[in-house]
């Protein structure tokens, strides 16, 4: 761990997620000494808001252009950068697999995920010693603990998929140099912590989240993430009952229209598909707001720049007045465009291949899944889904198939295809499904259903398809690329970290 990293924790533990709606609109106080901070319910409310805030750091999900999008979409066969190379060098390094150990996206991913872990570790450790009584009931304490554990599990799950063995930090850090000599623990131990945290979280989180608390984790978010963890580990027997519960009992459901899932006109209450999302709110930070990470200063936007960042370079006509000219960050590949079947309603709801510039038709592919423009460039309400029900249905289908329950898996697969306006697969008079054929069909369906949502790279990795798929595109991928290198700065500061093979 960077020796300087944890110095920031004490200064940012109470910082809030100013860019989020409802509960996450609250502006926490950050001027209290840490020694006196963790006492009351408002103290921990502010602290857990800071835990959610780290989701929007540059190294995590920042505006849909942070490290997660770079390392999990641009590194796959789904998207490529088309912006000005000199302004986006680190993106092209990832796309072309020429990235050095000082690559900015890789460095930010390591540092900012550990920042989030540090914030929630403080909450988990200090809750038992907090004041108790009518002003801070035990059930509220339990919920804060469960939320902190859900977030810690999510941060560690992202990190372990990106880097493999990690520094396992579960306690507050006593000073800026306290982790300077901490080595990496085996990834199996990281997964043990993730699973333990998610089981505790599932027992302590509420089943439903009202609109006034939009952005907070629910029991079903913890279980959906746990199912994904087991799927990643190939533990399908463990994943199956969990995913069945989320499918059958969560109250979440597939929306009738795929486009409506991502539409800015779909309200929080009406969106039955999002289980956990990073939320954004258009508008300007008011005077007196605290800020954190990439959220900007007073007078700057609190919104997302996904649409303006992902629009084609020079596409001012798409973005409207004050909307900018597009960043070309997340351009769909020809391979992804061709992956959609004729008549798939998801294609035009996810990407388009032309736009008008005055009377001229411009041939340029771009993602429209999160299309929404606010009053100024980079100012939109587009929330970014981390867990949604369509993913759960396909994970459930995969777990059923891997457990030999093929007819039931076909039913789940065809729920997704029916919503997309496509004919069902493996039904009479077609040949019945085999496990291998259904496995391939589920992989294909995941690609087009979940495009631009950070699933493609981890799906290719966990199914051992990454090397052949990327090499077929002419990308010089090797087996060791299943993990990224530990950032150079971290290994320079801590000789006990070591480096991943191949780097």
**Category by helix and strand content:** mainly alpha
- How many strands? 6
* Count of discrete domains: 2
Q: How much strand content do the residues show?
A: 5-15%
Shape: globular
CATH architecture of the largest domain: Alpha Horseshoe
The overall average pLDDT, rounded, is 88
The third-level CATH topology of the largest domain is: Serine Threonine Protein Phosphatase 5, Tetratricopeptide repeat
* Tally of separate helices: 21
Radius of gyration: 22 Å
Biggest sheet architecture: 2 strands, antiparallel
Give the N-to-C terminal Cα separation: 18 Å
What's the helical proportion of residues? 40-55%
Write the H/E string, N to C: HHHHEHHHHHHHEHHEHHEEEHHHHHH
Descriptive keywords:
two-stranded antiparallel sheet; 503 residues; globular; 2 domains; 6 strands; Serine Threonine Protein Phosphatase 5, Tetratricopeptide repeat; 6% strand
């Amino acid at each position: 761990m960077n020796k300087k990293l944890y110095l920031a924790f004490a200064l940012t533990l109470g910082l809030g997620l100013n860019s989020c709606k409802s509960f996450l609109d609250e502006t926490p106080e950050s001027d209290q000494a840490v020694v006196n901070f963790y006492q009351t319910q408002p103290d921990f409310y502010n602290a857990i808001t800071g835990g959610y805030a780290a989701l929007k750091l540059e190294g995590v999900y920042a505006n849909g252009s942070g490290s997660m999008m770079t390392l999990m979409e641009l590194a796959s066969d789904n998207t490529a950068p088309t912006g000005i190379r000199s302004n986006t060098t680190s993106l092209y390094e990832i796309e072309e697999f020429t990235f050095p150990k000082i690559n900015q996206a890789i460095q930010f991913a390591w540092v900012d995920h550990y920042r989030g872990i540090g914030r929630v570790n403080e909450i988990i450790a200090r809750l038992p010693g907090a004041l108790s009584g009518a002003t801070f009931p035990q059930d509220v304490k339990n919920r804060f603990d469960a939320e902190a554990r859900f977030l810690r599990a999510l941060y560690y799950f992202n990190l372990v998929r990106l880097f493999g063995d990690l520094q396992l930090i579960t306690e507050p850090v006593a000073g800026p140099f306290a982790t300077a000599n901490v080595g990496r623990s085996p990834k199996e131990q990281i997964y043990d912590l993730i699973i333990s945290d998610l089981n505790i979280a599932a027992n302590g989180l509420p089943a439903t989240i009202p609109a006034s608390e939009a952005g907070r984790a629910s029991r079903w978010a913890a279980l959906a993430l746990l199912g994904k963890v087991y799927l990643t580990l190939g533990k399908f027997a463990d994943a199956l009952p969990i995913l069945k519960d989320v499918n059958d009992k969560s109250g979440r459901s597939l929306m009738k229209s795929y486009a409506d899932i991502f539409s800015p006109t779909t309200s929080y209450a009406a969106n039955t598909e999002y289980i956990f999302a990073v939320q954004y709110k258009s508008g300007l930070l008011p005077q007196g707001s605290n800020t954190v990470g990439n959220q900007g200063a007073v007078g700057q936007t609190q919104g997302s720049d996904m649409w303006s960042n992902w629009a084609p370079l020079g596409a001012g006509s798409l973005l409207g007045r004050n909307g900018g000219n597009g960043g070309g960050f997340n351009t769909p590949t020809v391979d992804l465009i061709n992956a959609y079947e004729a008549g798939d309603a998801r294609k035009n709801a996810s990407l388009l291949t032309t736009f008008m510039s005055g009377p001229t038709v411009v041939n340029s592919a771009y993602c429209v899944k999160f299309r929404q423009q606010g009053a100024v460039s980079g100012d939109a309400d587009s929330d970014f889904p981390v867990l949604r029900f369509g993913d759960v249905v396909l994970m459930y289908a995969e777990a059923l198939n891997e457990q030999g329950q093929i007819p039931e898996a076909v039913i789940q697969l065809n729920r997704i295809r029916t919503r997309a306006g496509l004919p069902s697969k493996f039904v009479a008079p077609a040949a019945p499904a085999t496990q291998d054929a259904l496995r391939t069909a589920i992989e294909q369906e995941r690609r087009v259903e979940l495009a631009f949502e950070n699933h493609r790279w981890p799906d290719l990795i966990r199914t051992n398809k990454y090397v052949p798929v990327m090499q077929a595109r002419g990308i010089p991928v090797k087996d060791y690329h299943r993990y990224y290198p530990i950032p150079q700065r971290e290994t320079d500061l801590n000789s006990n970290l070591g480096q991943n093979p191949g780097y």
